[in-house]
């Protein structure tokens, strides 16, 4: 039996040391809407139709009610920006004092740039159209 289609990835989870520091970075510096914040536990952000869920890495190990989850290490994820907003996003990241770690042009001509969040997660902003079929 073939599987039914999925419409996308709704949530990306990161595990962080300090949710207030994370909230300040993603909301105050990058401008994402923080729609839920429980100090010392979690901070949730909206990015288009997706959400970025940031959990205190130590507190979720013993969480009840949903399956236990936690992680460690430097993870990677990407935000997608419209082609006409790509340069504006890059300029914004630099203007708020975040160092660009790498710029890349992919074989299909799409561009992306990379930087680190306060927990050293590798954040990418990629030009729209990179993975379209």
Description:
The protein is of the alpha/beta class and 133 residues long. The chain has helices at 19-29, 86-95, and strands spanning 11-16, 33-38, 42-47, 50-56, 76-81, 102-105, 111-116, 122-127. The chain has a 4-stranded mixed sheet, covered by helices on one side. A 4-stranded mixed sheet has the order 5-8-7-6.
Comma- or semicolon-separated keywords:
single chain; 8 strands; 2 helices; 4-stranded mixed β-sheet; alpha/beta; 133 residues
Compose a concise summary of this entry.
With 133 residues, this protein is an alpha/beta fold.
Strand order of the largest sheet: 1-4-3-2
By helix and strand content, what is the structural category?
alpha/beta
Task: Count the DSSP helices.
Answer: 2
Q: Overall 3D geometry?
A: globular
Order of helices and strands: EHEEEEHEEE
Topology readout:
Layout lengths: L10 E6 L2 H11 L3 E6 L3 E6 L2 E7 L19 E6 L4 H10 L6 E4 L5 E6 L5 E6 L6
Parallel strand pairs: 1-4, 5-8
Antiparallel strand pairs: 2-3, 3-4, 6-7, 7-8
């Amino acid at each position: 039996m073939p599987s039914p289609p999925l419409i996308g990835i709704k949530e990306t989870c990161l595990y962080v040391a300090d949710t207030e520091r994370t909230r300040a970075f993603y909301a105050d510096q990058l401008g994402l809407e923080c729609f839920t914040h429980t100090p010392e536990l979690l901070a949730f952000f909206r990015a288009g139709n997706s959400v970025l869920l940031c959990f205190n890495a130590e507190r979720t190990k013993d969480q009840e009610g949903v399956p236990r989850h936690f992680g460690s290490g430097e993870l990677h994820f990407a935000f997608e920006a419209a082609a006409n907003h790509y340069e504006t996003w890059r300029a914004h990241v630099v203007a708020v004092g975040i160092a660009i770690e790498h710029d890349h042009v992919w074989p299909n001509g799409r561009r992306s740039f990379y930087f680190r969040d306060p927990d050293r997660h590798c954040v990418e902003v990629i030009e729209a159209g990179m993975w379209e079929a």
